[in-house]
Design brief:
The complex is a heterodimer of chains A (319) and B (496).
Chain A: H1 17-23, H2 25-43, E1 54-55, E2 63-64, H3 68-75, H4 77-109, H5 114-125, H6 132-142, H7 150-157, H8 176-201, H9 205-213, H10 218-242, H11 250-255, H12 261-264, H13 267-276, H14 284-312
Antiparallel strand pairs in A: 1-2
Helix pairs in contact in A: 3-14, 4-8, 4-10, 4-13, 5-8, 8-10, 9-10, 10-14, 13-14
Chain B: H1 2-24, E1 35-39, H2 51-62, E2 65-69, H3 76-86, E3 92-95, H4 97-105, H5 113-117, H6 121-124, H7 128-132, E4 135-136, E5 139-140, E6 142-143, E7 151-156, H8 157-163, H9 171-183, E8 196-198, H10 215-218, E9 225-227, E10 233-235, H11 240-254, H12 267-275, E11 279-285, H13 288-299, E12 306-309, E13 318-320, E14 325-328, H14 335-346, H15 351-358, E15 365-366, E16 370-372, E17 375-377, E18 383-384, H16 420-431, E19 433-435, H17 443-465, H18 470-479, H19 482-495
Parallel strand pairs in B: 1-2, 1-3, 8-11, 13-19
Antiparallel strand pairs in B: 3-14, 4-5, 6-14, 7-11, 7-12, 9-10, 15-18, 16-17
Helix pairs in contact in B: 11-17, 13-16, 17-18, 17-19
Classes of the chains: A mainly alpha (319), B alpha/beta (496).
Chain lengths: 319, 496
């Protein structure tokens, strides 16, 4: 028998690109609207970042100024103040909100009566649906430094404050951040519990049974079963939200005022002030430069979070 | 009623008499445009409020095709910016004072000085200071058909009576009044010290003239850029007058005279507190607002008699803001014609001004015998109609507020209907007003004034509400770069 020369590799005949496109033409056709949408609404507007290298007042054509806007930005103390405020306010808010959401979820999980549990969940979700404008208005009344302010009236009634020495929580450099965090916890903690409640409902009941057989009480079950089961979700939530810390605007904008600007100005409100607070025609090139910097920092944070996410979630990134 | 009907008939006769000659008298040398394109904000009738009928009536009066570009009111200046950057400029555009100065400095607007001086409009405008306030280095780039109006201080008469006081004429008397209103029982409820004297929406305004809500404390201080008597640009924030004003504000705030929430108040908050009789001295808009305040006080069953206070001795005069301005762009091919047939006719005193003041007959106003929102009118009786967009309310005016018009209507059917309190507050304001200055925009101002204004506002707030001393405030101003930015802007203004 004639021995054949056997080649282990399989010869693949390369199909020309045009033929492949023709073959899958209907898929490409279906993809076309998405492609057009993406180009129109995601990529073309990105060309606007070119303004950050120009002097542009919205009237005449932009003038190329190179890196002037960035040089000016990095030399402005108010810019750095806003940058550090953004990080500080966002990260502390994130830690507090997540921490409170975990605590609240654990407490909700302990409610045995299902109807009561659902009622409690509904009530704590509600503030999330209030707009920030309404929230600021309501809390403005609650924290009012007058006899009508709920908090001040309470503090006077229990003797912590004397009448006439009411605290202007939202107008005080000392108190504004505390008030801001409290308002954020009130508004967003309830909504933040959803993901933790979902995780809690997925814990295998056999683990609790095994813990009970080992003599664990409620506290030990929570400590050794519930909390470890939640830990992965907590880290995931923290990482996912870390990527969004540069987006802080609305909550700060509606609660800040002239007195607290050094502690409350964040990058987005800084851009707003640059554009609308100058009593003149603004230089959009500069505000675009600040916006671009903010986006780049946000992008870097997303990449860092993606890396951390892969580490924590066994190879699953966020992008 | 008979008198009103007679007046309405006279109005109709006056309108007929003045409508035709207005266009016929046009200068022979000025070419009549075939079409005029205008860009306007929501102060002109919107589509939902009968813009088409307004446009048709305007075209009927002039024989010119009018194209109205009207972006959403809130996004108006975004669209204006995009339009100007795009190069497809309208013939006419309405601009606020900030944009007026900026666009004029950029060479976008046509210099109408000569056209104005050769027009009948110059004779018709009663108060030339309004027009002079729009001049930049002598050149005029726009016309405001109305005055900018401003704020006047209202004091509740019942509060003065309860405290046994007369209306103050100087700062000492003013402080005495504030003290009585804060520590006494001005509202007569039997409790001393449960009221405060003054409230304001912010300690410093967000736009020129900045000081109009607390003029008695600012007095001669001005926290922004202005040209002084020597014709030199200065930053009022760096002057001693501003330091003294800050001290006055701090003292009054610490004494409890000023509402503790002034820093975070909106204008609506202040109005509501005033209606609820929580405070007695309120600096607010002159004119129609005097009636609104009175009506709302009555609705809250609070004594509604208000005294419009002439500016106290130390303040001298209330500021009048610069009104929105009608400008012709450099893109207009026939600016003389557009001035003649659009700008000049807007204040002709006859049909056209009537149109800009009250709108279109049968759409916005009527003289027919009918019932409108529960009120019955007889044949020939002038009355406004129900708002097409907001049911249950009446139109009060079109673009031009008749109380603020810089040139009078030949016959104003509502002249006698102006409520007394509105008329008095306007008279008080007009008797002691000064025009706010236009500030030219420079590159340095574009670059630095955002940070500078934020810093100035922060300093005012910290001194007044957070106990910072005036000396510390100005050290901060220096340390944070404010003094250097201010000087840079002043130098750029003086170099222009």
């Amino acid at each position: 028998m004639k021995k054949k020369n056997v080649n282990n590799s399989v010869a693949v005949r390369k199909v020309p690109l045009s033929a492949r496109i023709y073959k899958y033409r209907w898929f490409y056709l279906m993809f076309l609207p998405v492609l057009i949408f993406g180009i129109l609404f995601y990529y073309m507007p990105m060309l606007g970042v070119l303004l950050s290298f120009t002097k542009y007042n919205g009237i005449k054509d932009p003038t190329f100024v190179g890196m002037d806007n960035f040089e000016r930005m990095f030399s402005m103390p108010k810019f750095w103040e806003a940058f550090w405020n953004t990080l500080e306010l966002s990260i502390i808010k994130l830690l507090l909100n997540t921490g409170m959401a975990v605590i609240l979820s654990l407490l909700l999980n302990e409610i045995i009566n299902l109807k009561l549990k659902k009622l409690a969940q509904t009530i704590i979700y509600l503030p999330h649906f209030m707009s920030w404008v309404v929230t600021a208005s309501v809390w403005g009344m609650i924290l009012s430094p007058t006899s009508e302010g709920l908090v001040n009236t309470f503090l006077i009634s229990i003797g912590v404050l004397e009448k006439g020495s009411e605290v202007y929580f939202l107008g005080s450099v000392k108190w504004w951040r505390f008030a801001y965090y409290v308002i954020n916890i009130w508004k967003d903690t309830g909504w933040g519990t959803i993901i933790f409640m979902a995780t809690l409902s997925g814990i295998n009941p056999e683990l609790y049974e095994a813990a009970a057989i080992d003599g664990a009480g409620r506290w030990k079950k929570m400590r050794y079963v519930t909390f470890p089961a939640l830990l992965n979700t907590i880290i995931t939530v923290l990482i996912l939200n870390l990527a969004k810390v540069m987006n802080l605007f609305e909550s700060v904008f509606v609660l800040q005022n002239d007195a607290v600007v050094s502690t409350a100005q964040v990058l987005q409100t800084y851009i707003y002030a640059q554009t609308f607070n100058g009593s003149g025609i603004p230089n959009y090139g500069y505000s675009t430069a600040v916006g671009l910097f903010r986006s780049l920092v946000g992008c870097a944070l997303v990449l860092v979070c993606n890396y951390l996410s892969k580490k924590v979630r066994e190879g699953r990134g966020i992008v | 009623m008979l008198k009103r009907r007679m007046l309405a008939l006279a109005a109709t006769a006056a309108m007929v008499a003045t409508s035709v000659p207005m266009v016929a008298m046009a200068d022979e040398e000025v070419e009549k445009p075939e079409k005029i394109t205008i860009m306007v904000d929501g102060t002109v009738f919107t589509q939902a409020n009968g813009r088409a009928e307004f446009e048709a009536r305007w075209e009927e009066l002039t024989g010119i095709d009018l194209e109205i570009i009207q972006p959403d009111h809130d996004a108006y200046y975004d669209v204006v910016g995009q339009t100007m950057a795009g190069g497809d400029w309208p013939d006419v555009i309405i601009l606020s004072s900030t944009y007026y100065a900026g666009y004029a400095a950029e060479g976008v607007l046509w210099d109408m000085s000569e056209a104005y001086e050769n027009s009948s409009l110059m004779e018709r405008i009663e108060d030339q200071s309004v027009i002079d306030g729009l001049r930049m280095d002598g050149a005029l780039y726009g016309i405001s058909p109305t005055r900018g109006n401003g704020c006047v201080t209202y004091v509740k008469k019942a509060w003065l009576d309860n405290c046994g006081l007369e209306a103050p004429t100087n700062y000492e008397e003013y402080l005495n009044m504030l003290n009585a209103f804060t520590t006494g029982d001005p509202d007569g409820n039997g409790v001393d010290g449960d009221t405060y004297a003054v409230s304001a929406a912010g300690l410093i305004g967000g736009e020129a003239p900045y000081v109009n809500y607390l003029p008695e404390f600012y007095q001669d201080a001005y926290p922004s850029f202005y040209k002084n008597e020597e014709g030199v640009w200065v930053d009022g924030f760096t002057e001693d007058a501003m330091k003294e004003a800050l001290q006055r504000l701090q003292d009054a705030y610490e004494a409890g005279y000023i509402d503790k929430e002034s820093l975070t108040n909106g204008t609506k908050d202040c109005r509501n507190k005033f209606y609820e009789d929580k405070f007695g001295v309120f600096t607010y808009w002159a004119g129609t607002w005097a009636t609104n305040l009175k009506t709302n006080l009555e609705a809250n069953e609070v004594d509604s008699e208000l005294i419009a206070l002439p500016a106290i001795e130390e303040t001298g005069a209330y500021f009048e803001r610069v009104a929105p301005t009608w400008c012709i762009t450099e893109g207009c091919e026939n600016p003389e014609g557009v001035f003649k047939y659009f700008i000049e006719t807007m204040l002709d005193g006859g049909d056209m001004q009537f149109l800009w003041t009250y709108g279109v007959e049968g759409v916005h106003w009527s003289t027919a015998a009918e019932e409108v929102l529960g009120v019955t009118y007889e044949e020939g009786e002038f009355h406004m109609l129900e708002n097409l967009e907001t049911e249950g309310t009446l139109y009060t005016k079109a673009h031009i507020d008749p109380m603020l018009a810089v040139a009078p209507l030949d016959y104003d059917p509502k002249a006698d209907a102006i409520p007394e309190e509105s008329r008095i507050s306007t008279e008080v304001f007009n008797s002691t007003k000064k025009q706010a200055q236009l500030v030219v925009s420079t590159d340095e101002m574009s670059m630095l004034n955002g940070d500078l204004t934020t810093l100035k506002n922060e300093i005012v707030a910290l001194v007044v509400t957070n106990g910072m001393t005036v000396e510390e405030a100005y050290e901060k101003f220096e340390a944070d770069g404010g003094a250097a930015w201010s000087q840079e802007i002043v130098d750029s203004l003086n170099a222009k």
